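Problem 3 from the worked examples.
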Amino acid sequence: MSSKRTSSILVSPIEQRNSVVVLPKRPKYLHPKIEEDTPLSPQPPTAAPRNRIYLFSAEWAWSPINNRLNYYFLTPTQTGWQLWNNYTEDGHLPWSWHWQLLAYGNRCRANEKTIGTHLLLEFWKWEAEYYSLEHYDKVLHSGLLSKADVNAIAGKVWKNG
């Protein structure tokens, strides 16, 4: 499975809202968990996951020197699914890339897009509640999830965004 990143063209907020995407139902046995609340193991994994599927990247830009850029990946495992973030630590030199397990769920009968959608949805809801995360500024690159898919997920998390 490829982790190829494809570029997406920025779309105005009016065009984004006109894209209608209906989110698939959450798979019955997925049971999403947030890694920070319920750790998958006592020692958190930090190495890059194998067999990762690129979902998309999003940017939050609060100021020219304060931003957040996340690359989201889905990884199948023998027991379930994992949602990962790949980000750069740029607070000091040299900059370095880090992998962070965000959420996970059980093996279930559903396609990768549906599973990725629901793990991301639960993670963003949790992050919005516990860290007051606001709506991202833009989707930079689409992957398995299109810009319209990501905007539909965001619409469930940030109702007024």
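Problem 4, a separate protein:
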Amino acid sequence: MKRAVILASLVIFACSSVFLLCSCAKKQVVAEEKEITAPPKEEAAKVEEEKQTAVEVAKEVKEEEEKEFKKAEEARLNALPELEMAKKAHEDEKEEFERAEKARIEKTPELEKTRALEREDLKPTEPQIEYSYPSKVTTKEYLRSADVDRKGELTVSQITKKYSPSVVTIVALDENDQPLSLGSGFFINTTGHIATNHHVLEGSAKGIIKTFEGEKGEVFEIIKDDPKLDLLVVETSLRNTLPVLLGDSDAIRLGEKIVAIGNPAGSKATVSEGTIIGTRRREGLELIEITAPISPGSSGGPVFNLFGEVIGVATAFIDLRENLNFAVPVNYLKTLKLTRLELSSLPRMTIKLADIEREGALVEVFDIHYDYDLRSQHLTGIKFAMRNRCNYPIRKIKAFFVYKNSLGEVVSYSAKNYKGPILPKLPLLFSNRHGIHYFRKWDSHYRDWSEGTVAIRILDYEIDRSIRTSPVDLILK
């Protein structure tokens, strides 16, 4: 029994020893593995330093992002007023567009009705003038339908006061919206249709009109036109207009007094009195000879008799040998047929009068010189000459200047009035100060200067027929 206990104790001791040996061996193996896998101290320090650097970089990036965010937020807050203003402007534009669209929709039935009346698709609801020639409506019937008392003549002041609101200024514009010419016209009905000379709008891309009261409108379409007669009728954007009374040009009498009204300034009517001294036929066209002086800007305006009836349309043809102007008989206006043309589609005039010249050719512009700044090569102004081809002095010249660069693009424009006078058949030197940057450039390819151009357009002037100056007159004065 005692031996068994000793043996058991030995077995237990042996097992414990084996267990302890195994545990120690295992710990040693684990330690060795850890020792093998553990990085050196230098590498651990380097890894720790890299971690610290990465943390600092991330911190700096975060700070930069916060700064950028603050700047963006400040910019957004600063831009809020401008955004509000832009939003308000957009809303205003939207409201304006909606009002214009509503007005256009409201005017559409009236416009369609007007066009239908022109096509004679609808019967007129009020007395209308029949535009046919010979006219089936006699002068007496027409005057009776218009409730006009032909027994009493009107004074020049009465005619001017009554019909100046019927006369308008017409500005012909090119494709760059620069003025080409000035003219006059007059309303022939209450729906804004205007009669004028063909040459007033010939060659233009757009037409602007201005009434005696200062209201502005635009030319929509050419309704009737005949370049041989130098007459046309246009549809405009204006409504509720005051028309003139069309008379009978076949009933005119020699020696009859007439009144010509033009509106070249758009705010003040130009009125001239004269007499009918005859008619002249050229190239199949019969013109009324009148002594009333007419400026180029008044071309297309009405010529009244003393009963307040339009008997002719003032035209820009004059006779240089005599104190004469001409008017196209109003009965020609009644013969015009529907054409429905766009303004840019107007045909060129083919009329050629042998001994009658156009007023537009009386002022000749030539010999244009450009003044440059020597350092910057900027244009500082121009000098040019104008020649008077008329037998009378010319005054109050209205010139318009269009400045184009070397590529033909419009870069500026200006206008100037010159008092004059320019004596008959003589040239005179003029100038216009107007600065243009980079008007002239050095072209290295062609080794030469590349410069722009200036187009000078004479819009209006006045022929002074009260005097006829000559060298002898100056000596004997």
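Solution to problem 4. Residues 172 and 207 are 5 Å apart (CA to CA). Helices lie at 2-37, 41-118, 139-145, 156-163, 198-201, 330-333, 471-476.
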